[in-house]
Design goal:
Elements lengths: L1 H25 L4 H17 L13 H29 L9
Helix pairs in contact: 1-2, 2-3
């Protein structure tokens, strides 16, 4: 079952990446097309059996590298959301330190 989830996650990730590259290079940028590609990344993120959450117990360097690649777009987006949330929740105002 884990190998099926890995395969599906990789297929969705590659399809979303190819669709995003094609959207950005071949056609004018349309928000719905970019959101559809981002939805593919989120779907791949949830399909991937993450080792951190205990869904995968084997230790394979290849699967660990693929896990980093598949989870990277969503992790970066979540990191940016957390950073934005921290900027706007300190003492009720915007706090940008230089």
């Amino acid at each position: 079952m884990i190998s099926v989830r890995i395969g599906l996650a990789l297929i969705v990730f590659v399809a979303a990446t190819a669709y995003l590259v094609e959207t950005l290079l071949a056609t004018p940028v349309v928000k719905t097309q970019v959101l559809l590609a981002l939805l593919g990344y989120v779907l791949a993120y949830f399909l991937w059996p993450s080792r951190r959450s205990g869904q995968r117990r084997d230790s394979s360097v290849v699967l660990d590298v693929l896990e980093i690649i598949v989870e990277l777009p969503v992790e970066v987006f979540l990191w940016l959301l957390r950073l934005l949330g921290r900027l706007f929740t300190r003492d009720g105002g915007v706090d940008i330190d230089f």
